[in-house]
Design a protein that fits this description.
The protein is of the alpha+beta class. It has 2 domains: 6-103, Glycoprotein, Type 4 Pilin, CATH 3.30.700.20; 107-174, Hypothetical protein ph0010, domain 2 (Dna Ligase, domain 1, 2-Layer Sandwich), CATH 3.30.1490. The chain contains 5 helices and 8 strands, in the order ααββαββαββαββ. The protein has helices spanning 9-24, 32-37, 67-80, 112-115, 147-157, and strands at residues 43-50, 53-59, 96-103, 107-111, 124-129, 132-136, 169-173, 175-179. The strands form 2 sheets. Strands 2-1-3-8 form a 4-stranded antiparallel beta sheet, with helices on one face. Strand 1 (43-50) and strand 2 (53-59) form a beta hairpin. The chain is globular, with a radius of gyration of 17 Å. The chain starts with 8 loop residues before the first helix and ends with a strand.
Length: 181
């Protein structure tokens, strides 16, 4: 399911317009066509990169609002509220590439060590343990190719020991993604 999906191309424009509007205090005009076409409740992540380096990434794991609204909200949060980065500046927005990942509904896999062999590189993984959680989109497999290392990094992202994945509850999802050229 993780493939470039042309049906979401319009959402890239919406995300960019949303971010750019914040620099001028404008309100984004969202067409009825976009609202209708993307009215299904779906979860998405908006990822920003600059020179192929992560610049912001925020999203939702569960569908809670119409997809177009999730894109707008996550675009703003990725650009201006990702605690790992300074807010995007107006001068750098031209250098930033946007990617949108539309998520399937997450499904439970089971306990880490028991389901290790079921995990594949098309999966986004959600780790939950001791009231903490973290996720990696399937695209992260491009940077962390080793399954054990992937799960160790996911454990540490949740603020846990690197071997916490072995006894953590794991779920997975797949994505349809679209990115700017």
């Amino acid at each position: 399911m993780e493939k470039q999906n042309k049906k979401y191309k319009e959402l890239l424009r919406l995300a960019r317009q949303t971010i750019e509007s914040k620099f001028h205090g404008d309100e984004v005009k969202i067409s009825d066509e976009i609202k209708k076409k993307f009215s299904k409740k779906q979860a998405c992540f908006v990822t920003l990169t600059e020179d192929k380096m992560l610049r912001g990434c925020i999203g939702s794991l569960e569908p809670r609002q119409e997809l177009w609204k999730d894109v707008v909200e996550n675009a703003v949060h990725a650009a201006f509220h990702d605690y790992r980065f300074m807010p995007v500046s107006e001068s750098e927005i031209k250098k930033i590439k946007i990617e949108i990942s539309v998520l399937s509904i997450p499904k439970k896999l089971g306990i880490g060590e028991e389901v290790f062999d079921k995990i594949n590189k098309k999966m986004g993984i959600i780790l939950e343990k001791s009231g903490r959680s973290s996720t990696f989109l399937p695209q992260v497999w491009e940077q962390i190719n080793d399954k054990k290392e992937f799960l160790e990094e996911l454990s540490m992202k949740a603020g846990l020991n690197k071997d916490a994945w072995e006894t953590a509850e794991l779920s997975f999802y797949e994505v349809e993604k679209v990115e700017e050229d």
